[in-house]
Amino acid sequence: MTEIRKVAVLGTGVLGSQIAFQSAYTGFEVVAYDINDESLQKARLRLAALVETYRKEVTGAAGLQADTMGRIILTSDLAAAVADADLVIEAVPEVLAIKQALYEKLARLAPSDTILATNSSTLLPSDLKDFTGRPDRFLALHFANNIWKFNTAEVMGTPETDPAVIDTILKFASDIGMVPIPIRREKAGYVLNSLLVPLLNAAAELAEGGYANPHDVDKVWRIATGAPMGPFQIYDMIGLNTPYNILSHSDEHAGSLAAWLKENYIDKGKLGIASGEGFYSYKPAD
Ligand code: NAD
């Protein structure tokens, strides 16, 4: 099994910054790459915000000090970022052409034994494997947003991925504090989104069709199943733009759900927790 010591994270947006920070927090040396100085400046702000979040929300992190940040190098030099990485985790935008172009560069720049992993939410690793130059050392490693508390890591190879590489990444996921979940055959949406997307769509259908209002849909789900959150609370946590984008690209009926979300919520600036209001209000009481 390959020993992972040095990790390169490509893309320092919402998920990339979290993956870089969590890996450094758990003791790994991390190089985080993004395309230009402006993106790296945003990354610095995201990482600084994560220091505060961990201090508040992660048991044992109250005294979190500079050593975590000291283990993260930020760079816009891709060749330097991956030169001696044991593992590259790609978290760049969910656009096939961007990812393919990046893997074509990695095929040349990353040492041939470096393992490459994509955090893609909707693409299959088979969509990308032929661009990596090493299909046997390529797989998906899928995190959930807010990885310090929602710590699943779904690990999914293609039929060409070496089983030893899958084992290496299951162990790495565990080493960085995740609960590793092997996905045994390629499946768009992994386990998480295969379950969550239909639940969120069904909830939207109930509210859009006038059967029950969002708060009552949530109440039924919470009380009758014991779940801590209802589907509309989950919408607010994710942010309404992402489900809207998924619905807009789904079948015809989903289009009317997308329009309902847009007209009643998104166009009114109700985007979820991040905007202070979605299906619920998060504004501090006056
Ligand atoms: P994001 O838009 O927040 O961040 C993407 C980052 O990639 C940006 O910093 C951007 O500057 C950078 N980037 C753009 N082109 C690049 C390139 N060629 N090379 C390197 N960096 C580049 O996106 P995100 O939400 O962090 O999503 C990234 C990936 O993670 C996607 O594949 C997405 O499906 C997946 N994902 C996202 C979530 C989520 O909740 N946001 C959850 C799980 C998985």
UniProtKB/TrEMBL annotation:
GO terms for molecular function: (3S)-3-hydroxyacyl-CoA dehydrogenase (NAD+) activity; 3-hydroxybutyryl-CoA dehydrogenase activity; NAD+ binding. Pfam families: 3HCDH, 3HCDH_N. It catalyses: a (3S)-3-hydroxyacyl-CoA + NAD(+) = a 3-oxoacyl-CoA + NADH + H(+). The keyword Heme does not apply. Its EC number is 1.1.1.157. Pathway: Lipid metabolism; fatty acid beta-oxidation. GO terms for biological process: fatty acid beta-oxidation. This is 3-hydroxybutyryl-CoA dehydrogenase. Residues 6-183 form the 3-hydroxyacyl-CoA dehydrogenase NAD binding domain. Keywords: Fatty acid metabolism, Lipid metabolism, NAD, Oxidoreductase. Residues 189-282 form the 3-hydroxyacyl-CoA dehydrogenase C-terminal domain. InterPro entries: 3-OHacyl-CoA_DH, 3-OHacyl-CoA_DH_NAD-bd, 3HC_DH_C, 6-PGluconate_DH-like_C_sf, 6PGD_dom2, Mito_3-hydroxyacyl-CoA_DH, NAD(P)-bd_dom_sf. It is an enzyme of class 1 (oxidoreductase). The record marks H142 as: Important for catalytic activity.
